[in-house]
Structure prediction request, 211 residues.
Amino acid sequence: MRAADREQAIIEEAVRFFAEHGFEGQTRELAKRMGITHSAIYRYIPSKEALIERVYEHVYLSRWNDGWASLVTDRSRPLEARLTQFYLEYVERVFDYHWVRIFAFSGLKSFDITSRYLAIVREKIILPACAELRAELKLPPPAQVPVGEREAELFWGLHGRIFYLAIRRYVYGTQTPDDLTPIVRDAVRAFRAGVGPVLADIVAEAGPQER
Prediction:
């Protein structure tokens, strides 16, 4: 096997291994599972930490769509339609056994996979969506009244509501609907229908003094 192919095989098997056993799983066991020597892994990837980094790139960064940021900020469409499309595409990309379980294990063991990924979600989706909702509701823009944590939590609540379906399915092993399309549409619709008065109060209470 070519070196590049062997390295890729190690990463792909590591994804499956960590999804099943968490990051406490030993690379020695990973090697045994692959039928190679322990030292063979480190011939291609220098450390367990480096292997985890490659898993992060393979599982998370490779599935992130850079077009999602522009989708959320496209004011030619209502925000509800934009958020619905984003979450339908997001569910299609991330509702995966390996993705979800590695994400959960990372948070439990204080690896920075979870925090790094959520920082991307915050920067590319949550904060822009806050600005877009303000624009749609004709509220002061973030340049006048900065987005605070209380406001951002409104959108994290929507994000968490949808992602919790994946936790139930792949971590708890409980039944979830096979077709998530109407579930996602309902979640976004309910959020958009009810969020306006709450956000207006938050922005009014924050006021321009936070500039």
Observations:
- Residues 11 and 55 are 6 Å apart (CA to CA).
- The mean pLDDT is 93.
- The chain is about 75% helix and 0% strand.
